[in-house]
Every structure is written in C-alpha cells, then in structure tokens.
Amino acid sequence: MDGVLVDSEPFICKAAIMMFEELGIQVLPEDFQPFVGMGENRYIGGVAELHKINVNIEFVKARTYKIYEKIVSGRLSPLPGAHEFMAKCRNRGFRLALATSADRIKMEVNL
Asked: Model-level pTM?
C-alpha cells in the first residue's frame, strides 16, 4: 500500500514526531529512515530504542495513529497512476488485493 498506492511516510513520520513531543522527547525525521517499510511497531519502536526510551508500543502506536488520522485528513492523495492501474486491472477481470505491513487502522485511514 505505502509507496505503491499512497506515500504516507511523511505524514506518519510527522505524527510520530508529534507523539514523541507529547512525551517530552525530541526526535528527528532522519531517525525513522532505517525503519521505513518495517511496520509501525519497528518504525516507532526502533526510534524509541535509538533514543533509549522505554515505551508501551501499543499505547504510542494508538496515539500516533490518532494524530496521523487528523493530519492526513484531506491531504493524502493516491500516487500518480494508482487509480488508472486499478481500473485497468478491474476492466480485465483481475481480482485485486491489498498488502501492507501497516496496522489495520492506518490502512483504513489511507484507503
């Protein structure tokens, strides 16, 4: 899904930075780079480990997703060609499926 249908990484990065700020911790966008594409447990958890922060991953993910949902509203767009590609597949009778390492809530927000 991410990087194929939409580019949500800048938004989830911003949401995670905002979540860490709520905890009083300053993190940088580049802190997340090694964890891109690994799912939010590793994306957020990896940055927490990097800064030697002990977090409840389910809590911080839930908070990050709440922030994410607010900041992407009306701003997340499909990548160029995504709609056309899916339409061509449907017109040819192909069955479509979605694969993502993201949690269901992020998938639903993105869709």
From this structure: 0.87
